[in-house]
Amino acid sequence: MEQSDVLRSARFRQEREADWKRLETLVSTAEKSGVQRMGFAAARDLAALYRQATTSLAIAREISLDKALLDYLEALTARAYLSVYAPQERVGSVFNRFFRASAPQAMRRSALYILAGFVCMGLGVLVGYLLYFENAAWYYVFMPPEMAGGRGPDASTEFLRSVIYDDDPEASGLGAFATYLFSHNTRIAIFVFGLGAFLCFPAVLLTFYNGLILGGFFALHVDRGLGVDLGGWLSVHGVTELSAICIACGGGLMLGVAVPFPGQRSRAEALRHAGRDAVKLALVAALMLIVAAALEGFARQLIQDSGTRYIVGWGVGFLWLLWFTLSGRTAK
Amino acid sequence: MIFRRRKTRDSIDVNRVIPPEGVPLNLNISGVGVRLGAQITDIIITTITAVALVVLLWALDATEPDTLMAIGALLFFVIRIPYYVISEITWYGQTLGKRFLKIKVVSHNGGTLTTHSIVLRNLMKEAEIFLPGTLLITLDQTTPVYSWLALGWVVCVLLVPVLDRHRRRLGDMIAGTHVIHLPEPVLLSDLASDNRSREKHFAFLAHHLDHYGIFELQTLEDVLRSVERRHLSPQAYRNRQNTIKTIVEKIRGKISYADAVMETDYIQFLSDFYNAQRAHLEQRQLFGDRRQDKHHNTTNDQK
């Protein structure tokens, strides 16, 4: 049979079919084992053949009415597109970049929002503190009873002291209370961040409320002359943990502010742009919460001396600050 | 009529992704049900793994009960965000559940799927579904207000992808991603160059080929492909013969093909007609006359 007898589109297909088949095998190896593990020639061919296939598809759409061919090329090109434009990063390098550059840079860029988060929390503490001294009954209003663990205005000073200086460190090494508080504050942090994405107000309110609890709690202990001791008890993990909540609040605020004040961008675009830094703040906050949980679980039980507790707590806080301020600076 | 036309045009746009090469690709958006299925699969897989690990540690008597509880609590966090983020980075936008159901996360604007988008969409998943979900499960009768709030929140969040044209969650919108079905490339043989089409029995003239358009051509292609299927029951075989006979008579009537066609030559007739019609339509298309279906003459007149 003569070559010219065959349809133009059928000839088009015959000439290129071998390349498509090769692309198909390359795509399936890329999907199975990853582009990074492919050899140089295979990776080069994948990219080149993919671009050829897109051209073939564009031509086929114009000249061919063979539905089988069009469907095949459509699917093949899409599959190849997905492997060529897959995220070309390993998990290790992602972690490396996050810790050494992008996280501290994002922290510095959004310093104002984080400050706002700290102000929310600080105001909450102040209000809670003052309210307690105005009337101790306020304590019951904002303190969830299951979180207080029996520590209220009714409790004896000895009991309060015994919680701060645990007489039996072994019994509650990683007890239920620690786990609960860990998950409570983690939940608060995530809520604060998530709520901020939709409206600033709930995020601010929740941070403020958390401060309120803290203020009332602190005032209770100051009232009993245990202020310094509680400061030590809280410092161990609290410096890290409460900062994490404030940072999460800052990230939420960033997202929340982007919607009503998008600037020159569209609202969706502004939200996406704010998300770039906000998500890093959330990750930093999550990391800090994990560290705080470890501090709470181990360090607080092991260290019974108030002075050492202050040193450990604020020392760790200082290390965080060093990471945020010094790491990831590029030479100018 | 107008409403329907707009709807079809939209459905083409929705599935269209434009890669940096500039040739639009059709990647079908995966529905809410499939994605929910993938999510549930993921939850089941991770939970079983975590429980198995804890039970293993317990059975081996490796740690104290207190530590075991802490490990359990830690695992509970690891199987959430970190699992989704790491699996989507290592498997290019697929978790295990997504791999089973053959769906994949792609960048909404057709560019590379970035690590940032993967992290962001999974972080939002926590705030959107998991937290209110766990709240809903853990809260009890004493705090109905929070339960209702959480329920309302979950319902609203689940409604977002149902209402969105691209079936995106809130997290997808913020991260600039959506989820698609992986297309399966299957190359069928070319009807225009197989054995039957090499020997031509029937000749068609230009006025025979001016009646049909692309839609009819591709329907005929489907019929011809179904003919290749063998192993039919006698009843199905007879039905198919009747269908083919009807089609041949219809075509002969429509194009006013005068010569008689023997019953044994029906398939050959259809195959020859397919080739001639396809050659004709492809040629017309090259000259800018794309005939969508058999109404191509009437619509042109109206315009």
Report on this structure.
The complex is a heterodimer of chains A (332) and B (303). By secondary structure, chain A is mainly alpha-helical. In chain A, 80% of the residues lie in helices and 0% in strands. Chain A contains 13 helices and no strands. By secondary structure, chain B is mostly helical. Chain B is built from 13 helices and 4 strands. In chain B, helix 6 (115-138) packs antiparallel against helix 7 (144-163) and helix 10 (214-227) runs antiparallel to helix 12. The radius of gyration of chain B is 29 Å and the shape is elongated. Chain B starts with a helix and ends with a helix.
Can you summarize this structure?
The complex is a heterodimer of chains A (332) and B (303). Chain A is an all-alpha fold.
Keywords:
heterodimer; A: 332 residues; mainly alpha; 2 domains; B: 303 residues; 13 helices; 63% helix; elongated; disordered N terminus
Instruction: State the low-pLDDT regions of chain B, or none.
Output: 1-9
Order of helices and strands of chain A: HHHHHHHHHHHHH
Number of domains of chain A: 2
Number of helices of chain B: 13
Strand order of the largest sheet of chain B: 1-2
Measured distance between first and last alpha carbons of chain B: 17 Å
Rg measurement of chain A, Å: 29 Å
What's the shape of chain B?
A: elongated
| Record field, number of beta strands of chain B | 4
**Assembly form of the protein:** heterodimer
Main sheet summary of chain B: 2 strands, antiparallel
Largest interface: A-B, 72 and 69 residues
Task: Report the average pLDDT across residues of chain A.
Answer: 81
Mean pLDDT of chain B: 80
- Enumerate the spans of chain A where pLDDT stays under 50 for 5 or more consecutive residues: 167-174
**Backbone structural class of chain A:** mainly alpha
% residues in beta strands of chain A: under 5%
Largest sheet report of chain A: none
Helix fraction bin of chain B: 55-70%
